[in-house]
Amino acid sequence: MRSNGRSSNELRPMNLTVNVNKYAEGSVFIEMGDTKVLCTATVDEKVPPFLKGQGKGWVTAEYSMLPRATQSRNQRESARGKLSGRTMEIQRLIGRALRSVVDLRALGERTITLDCDVIQADGGTRTTSITGSFVALAIAVNKIAQQHKLPVFPITDYLASVSVGVVNDEPMLDLNYEEDSSAKVDMNLVMTGGGAFVELQGTGEESPFTREELNQLLELGEKGILQLIEKQKELLGPIALKIASGQPGRGA
Amino acid sequence: MRSNGRSSNELRPMNLTVNVNKYAEGSVFIEMGDTKVLCTATVDEKVPPFLKGQGKGWVTAEYSMLPRATQSRNQRESARGKLSGRTMEIQRLIGRALRSVVDLRALGERTITLDCDVIQADGGTRTTSITGSFVALAIAVNKIAQQHKLPVFPITDYLASVSVGVVNDEPMLDLNYEEDSSAKVDMNLVMTGGGAFVELQGTGEESPFTREELNQLLELGEKGILQLIEKQKELLGPIALKIASGQPGRGA
Amino acid sequence: MRSNGRSSNELRPMNLTVNVNKYAEGSVFIEMGDTKVLCTATVDEKVPPFLKGQGKGWVTAEYSMLPRATQSRNQRESARGKLSGRTMEIQRLIGRALRSVVDLRALGERTITLDCDVIQADGGTRTTSITGSFVALAIAVNKIAQQHKLPVFPITDYLASVSVGVVNDEPMLDLNYEEDSSAKVDMNLVMTGGGAFVELQGTGEESPFTREELNQLLELGEKGILQLIEKQKELLGPIALKIASGQPGRGA
Amino acid sequence: MRSNGRSSNELRPMNLTVNVNKYAEGSVFIEMGDTKVLCTATVDEKVPPFLKGQGKGWVTAEYSMLPRATQSRNQRESARGKLSGRTMEIQRLIGRALRSVVDLRALGERTITLDCDVIQADGGTRTTSITGSFVALAIAVNKIAQQHKLPVFPITDYLASVSVGVVNDEPMLDLNYEEDSSAKVDMNLVMTGGGAFVELQGTGEESPFTREELNQLLELGEKGILQLIEKQKELLGPIALKIASGQPGRGA
Amino acid sequence: MRSNGRSSNELRPMNLTVNVNKYAEGSVFIEMGDTKVLCTATVDEKVPPFLKGQGKGWVTAEYSMLPRATQSRNQRESARGKLSGRTMEIQRLIGRALRSVVDLRALGERTITLDCDVIQADGGTRTTSITGSFVALAIAVNKIAQQHKLPVFPITDYLASVSVGVVNDEPMLDLNYEEDSSAKVDMNLVMTGGGAFVELQGTGEESPFTREELNQLLELGEKGILQLIEKQKELLGPIALKIASGQPGRGA
Amino acid sequence: MRSNGRSSNELRPMNLTVNVNKYAEGSVFIEMGDTKVLCTATVDEKVPPFLKGQGKGWVTAEYSMLPRATQSRNQRESARGKLSGRTMEIQRLIGRALRSVVDLRALGERTITLDCDVIQADGGTRTTSITGSFVALAIAVNKIAQQHKLPVFPITDYLASVSVGVVNDEPMLDLNYEEDSSAKVDMNLVMTGGGAFVELQGTGEESPFTREELNQLLELGEKGILQLIEKQKELLGPIALKIASGQPGRGA
What we know:
Largest interface: A-C, 36 and 36 residues
Pfam families (chains A, B, C, D, E, F): RNase_PH, RNase_PH_C
Strand content of chain A: 25-35%
CATH superfamily of chain A: GHMP Kinase, N-terminal domain
Shape of chain A: globular
Number of strands of chain A: 9
CATH topology of chain A: Ribosomal Protein S5, domain 2
InterPro entries (chains A, B, C, D, E, F): ExoRNase_PH_dom1, ExoRNase_PH_dom2, ExoRNase_PH_dom2_sf, PNPase/RNase_PH_dom_sf, Ribosomal_Su5_D2-typ_SF, RNase_PH, RNase_PH_bac-type, RNase_PH_CS
CATH architecture of chain A: 2-Layer Sandwich
Enzyme class (chains A, B, C, D, E, F): transferase
Oligomer: homohexamer
Family (chains A, B, C, D, E, F): Belongs to the RNase PH family.
Radius of gyration of chain A: 18 Å
Structural class of chain A: alpha+beta
EC number (chains A, B, C, D, E, F): 2.7.7.56
């Protein structure tokens, strides 16, 4: 039995609050159970040097945990003077995942930076960051669309992410910290609204996994992600229509 | 006329929410107008090397701003690989201020670290951090007191902080960002419940100030701080009695 | 048609040369086509702080590219003063993968560090590093086994790795740099001799992929890895028997 | 009784030697008792990026202590790879203080950097640095004035600094290291020739201080600073006239 | 008696393999006994900022040791976040030495970077790096000459380097690691094909040396270097003629 | 003709002032013409980790230039966050040179750190640092000898250093900055009172040099160094006797 009486294929309660920051072009506070992440989207009207003059935009992400987001305090990376490998791996993942559903050419020569700051961590901070920052991104892109009359809405599909894993020999959806710590297999999935994979990262450091276990995990994850995307759609309302149609119309 | 119709000797609305973090020994979310800071207190049962074996504890602070706490995004200090002078100056100030009302010997050989993370900045982030982290500190110290039956309650007085400044030739209390940017004189005060000064930092980079202006600013600041301390007392309830009496009794 | 007339399910020629370094406890020079990696294993009779006194050993890896391993010279990370996110991600992957086939308790309180230095890069440097460093690890572990009469041979299974991807809409095995650059989907697989997955990292930044494509790629990869493991077995000879039997006998 | 028989309102002997460096546009070796600081002013005919094209100049400062300026050797910040918080706080203070008496627009698009290198430290190194570097600044600005026929002399007033504190319950002027170490209250004052405050930094970490104590300290400090400014005037001679009149005439 | 029966004035066996890297404009794998260094030359069609617009080129070098090039593993400088003093000293030496035989004006506005990566170290890694990278440089320069029809061949003379030292009171040529460790005097010589000195670095940390000892060491070194240059000439073949004549003709 | 009418074999005027720092165990302010270096010796009653428990001491050096020691201001290495290669090379040289005349076993398990801070630079800062810091070292060692009744005086010989070079085709002694900048050959010599070489570093980056030129330079340098050592002897007085006799007697 999981904590809070969750069944093995059940997500934790998800809560999304939008526009929580008065300065950012898009912002979302996302809670998946006790994991809480603040996602802000910043639009910058220029691109990094490697993209200059190509008529394309860029989407990138940064990830960080507050020192007491975790059970015992973790030292600030600013104080240590460098980012950990874990942080770099996660922020590269978030950026890559978001770019997969953005038409960078349609975005034009501008950069959107997603900042994912983990206020409290209870497992799944990277997947929660992706799910939340997709919404912050959509809000920010909509703001650009309204100002710039883009010919096409640059977000091509929905995007959400969840973790799955084998805990006590049972495949489970959306692991919290305690479950994650004892999982034999741990996998993060990122999928589009169309049901295709964008990222799939499975690791069996403690115990290799079979093709059959992989299939069970993929099925659990797919169902979970579709539920997350349903919630995103509800929340985004009129913006959701733009994602579906590609028309950067008036609304929202 | 100030924004929101504030008069020159009026504080912004202050809101304190306690126990916002499930892991930290003390936590407070403080809002002073649009300035929002999350303060967590972490208790560590050891002291830094320079205090080892002296029978004394330590209180220290770290301060950081989320990248989009400000109007335009500021680069993470973890990405830049070092803390700015401003950050170091502020976190040294917060730690020094808090230590002035802690009996480090009564605290025993333990360290309390206050993390002040600015979620949104609209002027006065350092003073707001001090006011908020005093409350987080009190909650954490009370937890220690309850577990360790300390002979004395180690917090000796209340502590709060506010900014004052001369804006458009008028002395003003609790400047927001816009006022702060155009202030000729800018001063941060930290005071105890007993009405004494702990820190006083005034700067007239744009225009030196006279003894008379100083006195006006000090009066404004004193009144503001007493109001802040009243709110702290209400919020802390039974812990407030311990600070007053020095008795680390049952309550809270 | 692939370069060198390779078919889509064909590995590049692999060459393994052992004991190429006169100091290291294990060393292998591995060539997969034009990708060339020097892997050395260093045995250290102590463990990192977080493992002290637990009766367990540790296996870790470091990865680096020589500046001119690539078409255009890349700046040294030592000169830049920090490791890139890519390097950290790769060396974390190599270490994690190798640990999955080592019984750390049977290894005893010692650390084995695998250094993977890419002499020339033509795609697949991380997978080649895993395949090569497994062999260097096995040689080093065998040396320990011979000196220390361990009750069990600490390597529990074979381990190899390969990349697969979708290039020009066709699933392909073991991508070289040119293919990798134009791949819509890119996946790295790490598997054991027993045919189970240890790591599976797929990314469809350019284009999300379906469950069916995933299955095709997994099949290609599985077959490739089994061929690599066959070559490892041949090369390791008597050590291979120990891996199979768990008996840290005389031989080799 | 203070060492050397000083009374509580007496400055240490101050000695200023000008033009001690053959390359710098302005240079001063200042001794306040056993505290010795070398101040050099460097003129650079450009401004930092944030001021480009605004027709204004910039004045900034750097501060450092030689390793054996202190009783026990302190590690070089260059060897540690970063500036301490204390150093950054001090050099920000020096720069801010000097800018308060410079008309940056009259200075034109050039930067003056004051380097304050503490050769020997016996308390009050930051205040001594300010007093000394004002003189180095004046000499350098005079050199510019002579070369560029500026319409106005860009230094608008004198500037000096001193520390005051409460030692053994007595307010004292110009603390040496030993006094500073045992002071309950410690305050640094920066004032102009016109008697106005530029910076005022008081801290009562060991014991909060009352309004009355503050007033006593301010009076002590004011008198001390006026004496320092008298000495600066004597030393600067003809340049002093320019500061008084604003006329960047021939002389000096 | 030296290891391998070498006499005191005998070089270790030297082996040079050219074009070992498929990307670099020049590459050499050099072995002096068990010391093995990979040298690559990279041509970049621009110069560093300090040379811009002067019509001159630049030659520079970087040096690094693989972690297990040595008996016990040395930590990567990229992981430590900075270059050691030893590394910087060596790479400055290599660059300086190579520039002494290049006519930078004839080279034109381009930079050649020599990367010397020590694959295995057994004494003399810096001298071996110089001898090897001269050959890589010559190959790369010849490539430029062929493409750009330079009026003059920019390499003006041969260059090689060797170590000498006093071991067990006997002057010896080309020390291996064991000899170097017990040498009282240690000297590195860099000379041109014309028999002149380019660099001469002798150190008698363990025991100062006399003028007579110096002369003996210089004689040993000169003879050794001439032998190395003979081998370079053989290897370079047609390029050697260009160095001799200054004519950047067809050949090679 | 050289500036100041110096002949080619003439030293610049040297001035040594001892005990210029009230805290350091030994201190010297050395002036060679316009080159001015402050040398302090710090005694620490422990050794670095690599020497622990071997009954031997250590002598090491650090070197730095004040930002405005030079014609144009050079950026602080503390601000840049790392030491330059030049600085590291120089401080390694100074330490190595000094150790050559110290009996580390006789010194006992203590470390002496020489800090050489260049107050003003006009060529020859490294050689001047060596000459000056030898005297600071001798004073500090004498202090130890007086306190600890060492059986032997641990300094075994005198030590001084000078530069020589070929300027306008003429060999010259003790180059100032202007001469050094136009020298074809540049050489630094470190020698003992007994006339033996400790370090010899010659470089002909601009133009290789012959054996004959080398001999001329060595002769010039030897004579210069003997003069410097004469001055050291005069200055050290009674300590000089101890260096000569090895008897750590009462005197000084």
